Amino acid sequence: MIKKYLLLVFLCFGVQFYPRDLHPKISDTLQSKSYDYLFERIEAAAEDKFKQAYYLRYFLSKANSEGNSEEIINGYKNYLHYAPDKLKLIYADSMIYAARRSKDNALIGSAYLSKGIVYYGQKKHKYALDNYLIADNYISKTGDKYLIFKVKYNIGNIKYYLGFYDEAISLFMECRDFFKEKNGRAYLNSLHLLGLCYNKIGNFGLCSEINSKGLEEGRRLENNEMRDYFIHSEGINEYFKNNYGTAIQKINQSLPSLNKNKDFGNISVGYFYIGKSYWALGKPEMALAYFMKVDRIFDDKQYIRPDLRENYELIIKYYKSKKDLSKQLFYIEKLLKADSVLDNNFRYLSNRVRKVYDTNILVKEKKEIEDSFNRRKHNDLIFTAITVLLFLIVLFMAYRHIRNKKIYRQNFEEAMKQNGYAPKVEARNGHNGIDDIHKDTVAGILKQLEKFERNQKFLEKDLTSIKLAAVFKSNPKYLSKIIYHFRGKKFTNYIADLKIDYIISILKEDPKVRKYSNRALAEEAGFSSTQRFAQAFFAKAGCPTSYFIKELNKISE
Fold first, then answer.
1. pLDDT tens readout for residues 535-557
2. Integer Cα distance of 465 and 461 in angstroms
3. Global pTM?
4. What is each CA distance from 38 to 58, 162, 499, in whole angstroms?
5. Count of structural domains, the chain
6. Which end of the chain has the smaller Cβ count within 10 Å, N or C?
7. Whole-angstrom distance, CA of residue 524 vs CA of residue 503
């Protein structure tokens, strides 16, 4: 702690150590200079820390003496950029303090956004999200499109980390289009994250296209800052295309740059996929060396994400093959610790991003619609049209109610005829086949699926193809293709139908369960929300839960 504040004093007052005979000369020269000029001097003096410290202090001192709130904040931002990691949050807090005194929403939002970015760089995603949400609250009031898209980009990062890939893709595509002509680095960053998302959803061809586009655009913009990140991304993509040698070569090529940037998150991911590549090549000892590097980063930084969890499963598998019980136990405990960190981080982040950010967007859209109606409420023609429309809607609702009762009854009778889940279907033909998967792999996964269904493991909450593939020691692409081929459904529908079939069976068998609320039934089946349960039940049974239970009770009377 003492060293921390000594370094802060040095950065703020490093000018005292700068040769005194140069102070008057520099000060006289700088008096008439603009902030842009001072900023250029700060950047140019990056190799001379004493000189840079003087320019940093002069910039902030000038802004304070002129009472220029925006430049005061920029002054602290300059310090933040050049400070060591352990001091960045101190300068971020100074930015926020100065911004709040200015009462300017754009400045306050930008300051909180900067603090969130510092936390994200440290992989402290909880605190990053909290600051992004505060920033969004202020920035959304300003109409400043550049800041609004900066928030979108950073929320997209969180959604990517959480596994909401489709939503992240939508945000990154917006950011890519907005930043393309406005900020080259932000544009390249958006492309890079798009590529990572496409990899995660299994579109490896499009991921490669994005990575090639990123390298090409970097050359066009004469910006090489993201070059090695696109190479790193493509190396991981090559692993998923089973090109293990190429994956190792590309990831290794990118690591020096990532080490220079102290990007331990991407370094850890790189080590993991190099290890996985060696493992796939039948070289477990070489793989283990890289898995241990991932473990050291977890020990040092507490950095883990869902795909890195397999790192410990493979280490445990290695020591099991060596019959080393003590090492097995040690890494089982490590895996439990990693699960605890994942569970804690993901539950918090998911709830916050859904309840705060996504809800705010809906509220904003609702307000825009309401404002639109309010502006036109005095128009007699529109009022008349709306009145007629409402009358037609009422008629339609009445008709639909009568029709739905008939449809619901038919669907209910059909559901009552079904006895349990009948998962086996005829294999599908065409381009959605499984010709590219070894028959032994197919047989193994089918056997595990039958056990998974028999033991009702589908009741687990927040089950994803990534998690289940990890349990099956397979990959999400193969698992999803086999489920689609033999069960006739996409993964999400397959799991949802299993859960609903289970709920229907216990509703038939146990009258007590019929008294459960939708929320309780959703919890029983392992749905992440009541709404998702209600939607899945309707899709499967063809009628609402309340109607289904009502008809069951009639039969029992």
1. 888 888 888 988 888 888 888 76
2. 12
3. 0.54
4. 8, 41, 63
5. 1
6. C
7. 8
